[in-house]
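Usage

Read records sequentially. Each one opens with the input sequence:
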Amino acid sequence: MPHIKHSEKSSKSSKNSKDSKSAVDRAKALPWALMLQAGFVVGNRLSKLTASERERLLKLVRDSGGRLNRLTEKERKELSKIAAKLDVRGMSGELLPLFRGGRGRRGRHS
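and closes with the structure output:
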């Protein structure tokens, strides 16, 4: 029976655990006050949808697995209509400064 050094054995498991913990570690590092603010922003946008629109949005996202090419053309148009009502671009404009430390948009100044 070959002898396995402890460092060889742990390198495989530490690599897998390191990959799986990275998202958790990032979430722990994120201040919870920011997460609460982000929850309010998203919740405010979702409240603009009717109950049936929220259910349909959830079904479309689940069915697609987050990939638009898994939806039919009709479903994509329906998703686009719901996303327009959510004002996803406006939501990102509210969320990005929270996670950038309040620095706002970057780019050229006019």
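Summary fields computed downstream for this record:
- The chain has a mean pLDDT of 78.
- Residues 24-99 form one domain.
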